């Protein structure tokens, strides 16, 4: 048999890449079960205590709670606002449409450091005390762009005839939106919300500039890393990872089942 | 609310409709009256303004000028959902996130009609799809989707049903079958149908009245037979079926006929079937009304005769052949001859004379962009 380099090279390369990306995740997961007294760098003994009493380390839970609250509020605002903007940009021709498109692209193109610092300067100028709500404002600002881009792609695939059919079948503007437009855009809106949540939840740079004394989970981990990250943080990180993977798997399985059903 | 729902159709009247879009005028000046219960077809090439007209009636587009009256009531200022009108859209526009039954029940639910699902099931029975109520629209074939779209509109018993090229996406055989069904349903429910199409066969087959539209105006309107028998403009003569059209100066006029000179050959038409009686006139004849002769025939003055010419093309279409005859010094003329005996009746290259009865000729009000006789 002739030796083929490509036959071995590609699988090896893929396996290596997979291992490489998995190492830190596996490390975090494994060390969430480590019994620790000072630092969580060397393995000592297996324990479930970190998972069972995760809120014993109060700062971890507080930071985590803050991050969740901020991500939920910022996502709710940017999803609602972004969906409306996406529909407007996708469906209507109006003055300032291209300018709006450009402005929405800017936060994605601007380095986070610049945006964080710039925003911090604005809060200082206006005299707003930094804290929970300034983080929310900052997060809405940069997640909005991603929501608009994601939902706009969905709007582009939505046949305007469907909305016209709704109007023709005695639906007024709001009925047509809630019974036709919204359900059809929902997959896009849900994807945008998840993306927005993930971006907000693990943002560090912009948050660092605009948080003041308020702490978030990424900020806590960054600060704690100097002294050694507590295993409770590993628990939170692993937990988030597991939940995210579970959601993705459920969505995938449901989508493939639906495709199979439609094919029948 | 202007939504009064009736068991029978109502009449539609368009008064001085004009629609301008940035850069062009889609509808020039349209007046139209469709009596209640009629199957009316708006026929024209793409871009002639027929779909825009339909959208103005539905309320999806607002006319720049003019009024829309349904059952004598002015609905010009009202929203689509306030009009007693339903549309069957070109690609059906079925809601993909709802079951077939829910699609049909949508209009009923919006109007808060009692027992929407029972009534929707009834409507699906009418189109023989009650067994597919739980499916999603994308699981149906094109023909089935078309029927669901029809049921979804008809279940509301609109005063006026609008059909926007409803059969355009179906293959030929299914299209012919749906034409028969659609016509039968219209007779059964007695609603007013306004059907927009570019398929002349479809329009002639189904409609009580056909209006031929071109460049945002109605060129001619009437029963399909009348329209076919006596087109008044060159556009209608060629859009609705085929026509041979010859152009020339009127050289002879008597009590009943006018005659034009076409490169030395005389072509006549009855005065009663001509729009113009002097100057440069276009006279036409349908290809199936003309016959060819292998020997020069002896004919009276009730016939037009041209020739001799050579058969330069024969197209087989099944029941008949289309013969293209080139007559030197005169021009080209198309003749349809049925394949009752042998096919083709004469061979390519044969020399023939062509004749047709003067009473079958028609005189047009305008001149075609290109006539069939040489030099015009």
Report on the architecture of this protein:
Chain A has about 260 residues and is mainly alpha-helical. Chain A folds into 2 domains: about 1-55, no CATH class; about 60-230, MetI-like (MetI-like fold), CATH 1.10.3720. In chain A, about 75% of the residues lie in helices and about 0% in strands. Chain A is built from 11 helices and no strands. Chain A is globular. The two termini of chain A are about 45 Å apart. The relative contact order of chain A is 0.14. Chain B has 2 domains: about 10-230, P-loop containing nucleotide triphosphate hydrolases (Rossmann fold); about 240-365, Nucleic acid-binding proteins (OB fold (Dihydrolipoamide Acetyltransferase, E2P)), CATH 2.40.50.140. Chain B contains 8 helices and 20 strands. In chain B, helix 2 (about 100-110) packs across helix 3, helix 2 packs parallel to helix 4 (about 140-155) and helix 3 (about 115-125) crosses helix 4. The longest helix of chain B has 18 residues, at about 170-190. Chain B is elongated, with a radius of gyration of 25 Å. The N and C termini of chain B lie far apart (about 55 Å). The interface between A and B is medium-sized, with 18 and 27 residues.
């Amino acid at each position: 048999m002739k030796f083929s380099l490509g036959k071995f090279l590609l699988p090896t390369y893929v396996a290596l890449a997979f291992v490489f990306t998995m190492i830190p995740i596996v490390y975090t997961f494994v060390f969430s079960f480590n019994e620790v007294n000072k630092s969580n760098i060397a393995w000592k003994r297996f324990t479930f205590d970190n998972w069972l009493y995760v809120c014993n380390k109060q700062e971890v839970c507080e930071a985590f709670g803050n991050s969740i609250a901020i991500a939920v509020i910022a996502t709710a605002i940017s999803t609602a606002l972004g969906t409306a903007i996406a529909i407007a940009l996708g469906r209507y021709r109006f003055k300032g449409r291209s300018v709006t498109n450009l402005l929405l692209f800017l936060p994605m193109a601007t380095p986070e450091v610049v945006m964080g610092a710039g925003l911090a300067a604005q809060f200082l100028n206006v005299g707003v005390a930094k804290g929970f709500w300034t983080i929310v404002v900052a997060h809405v600002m940069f997640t909005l762009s991603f929501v608009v881009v994601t939902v706009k792609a969905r709007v582009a695939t939505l046949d305007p005839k469907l909305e016209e059919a709704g109007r023709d079948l005695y639906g007024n503007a709001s009925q047509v939106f809630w019974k036709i437009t919204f359900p059809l855009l929902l997959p896009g809106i849900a994807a945008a919300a998840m993306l927005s949540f993930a971006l907000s939840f693990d943002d560090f740079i912009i948050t660092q500039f605009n948080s003041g004394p308020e702490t978030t989970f990424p900020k806590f981990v960054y600060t704690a890393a100097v002294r050694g990250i507590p295993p409770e943080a590993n628990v939170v990180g692993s937990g988030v990872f597991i939940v995210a993977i579970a959601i993705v798997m459920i969505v995938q399985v449901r989508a493939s089942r639906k495709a199979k059903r439609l094919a029948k | 609310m202007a939504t009064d729902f009736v068991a029978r159709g109502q009449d539609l009247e368009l008064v001085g409709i004009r629609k301008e879009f940035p850069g062009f005028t889609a509808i020039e000046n349209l007046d139209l009256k469709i009596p209640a219960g009629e199957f009316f077809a708006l026929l024209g090439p793409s871009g002639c303004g027929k779909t825009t007209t339909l959208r103005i009636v539905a309320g999806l587009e607002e006319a720049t000028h003019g009024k829309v009256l349904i059952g004598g009531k002015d609905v010009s200022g009202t929203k689509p959902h306030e009009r007693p009108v339903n549309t069957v859209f070109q690609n059906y526009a079925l809601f993909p996130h709802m079951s077939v039954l829910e699609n049909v029940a949508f209009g009923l639910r919006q109007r808060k009609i009692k027992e929407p699902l029972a009534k929707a099931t009834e409507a699906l029975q009418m189109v023989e799809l009650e067994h597919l109520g739980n499916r999603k629209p994308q699981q149906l074939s094109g023909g089935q989707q078309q029927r669901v779209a029809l049921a979804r509109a008809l279940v509301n018993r609109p005063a006026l049903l609008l059909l926007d090229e409803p059969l355009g996406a179906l293959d030929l055989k299914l299209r012919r079958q749906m034409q028969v069904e659609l016509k039968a349903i219209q007779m059964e429910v007695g609603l007013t149908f306004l059907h927009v199409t570019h398929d002349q066969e479809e329009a002639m087959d189904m409609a009580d009245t056909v209006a031929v539209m071109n460049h945002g105006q109605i060129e001619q309107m009437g029963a399909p037979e009348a329209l076919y028998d006596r087109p008044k403009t060159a556009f209608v003569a060629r859009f609705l079926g085929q026509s041979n059209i010859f152009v020339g100066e009127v050289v002879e006029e008597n009590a009943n006929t006018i005659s034009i000179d076409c490169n030395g050959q005389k072509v006549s038409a009855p005065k009663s079937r001509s729009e113009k009686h002097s100057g440069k006139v276009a006279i036409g004849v349908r290809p199936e009304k003309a016959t060819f002769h292998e020997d020069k025939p002896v004919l009276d003055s009730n016939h037009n005769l041209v020739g001799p010419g050579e058969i330069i093309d024969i197209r087989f279409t099944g029941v008949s052949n289309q013969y293209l005859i080139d007559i030197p010094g005169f021009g080209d003329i198309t003749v349809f001859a049925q394949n009752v005996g042998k096919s083709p009746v004469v061979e390519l290259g044969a020399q023939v004379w062509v004749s047709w009865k003067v009473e079958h000729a028609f005189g047009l009000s305008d001149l075609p962009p290109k006539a069939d006789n040489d030099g015009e």
